[in-house]
Amino acid sequence: xxxxxxxxxxxxxxxxxxxxxxxxxxxxxxxxxxxxxAGELGHAQVPGGLDCTCGLxxxxxxxxxxxxxxxxxxxxxxxxxxxxxxxxxxxAAGDPAGRRVIDDAITALAFSIAQLVxxxxxxxxxxxxxxAQAGAALLDPLRLRVKQNLSFHRHPVLLAAQMGQDAGLxxxxxxxxxxxxxx
Length: 183
Description:
The longest helix has 25 residues, at 96-120. The two termini are 23 Å apart. Helices cover 43% and strands 19% of the residues. The protein has a 5-stranded mixed beta sheet with strand order 3-2-1-6-7, with helices on one face. The radius of gyration is 17 Å and the shape is globular. It is built from 6 helices and 7 strands, in the order E-E-E-E-E-H-H-H-H-E-H-E-H. Strand 1 and strand 2 form a beta hairpin. It has one domain: ATPase, nucleotide binding domain (Nucleotidyltransferase, domain 5, 2-Layer Sandwich), CATH 3.30.420.40.
């Protein structure tokens, strides 16, 4: 919000998609904390979601995370892959299993993003984490699906995170500095 892709924006959801899915919600420039519970996007239920280690069925993380993409592809094909990058490559090469897994993940992510926009009026969604490394192969179809899931709502800008792996460290440093500067 201060230095990255969401700089200058007030109503933003940051979604970190890696092994799991985490998020941060900002409304009117302030982070929504919800007593520490806000931002558990990976455990929001989506159509098509599978059994989750949290004990629920249907969590976004079970279908939309990088870990789930690799796991589902391996289950469908019997071919073990180290990560989602290989599934994106397989899908780009025309592999139907790869395409199905990627499509399912994008559909689930778009569903969750549209829900957030409908509820919060989010102006932008920043996608970070390992899955964001897929770039246009993820963001272009995700933008289209989100647009298809919204009608009169504000259509958010989908942005790739800019700060990479240092984002958490920079955020922690800014938070610590803010605590020192507080009266």
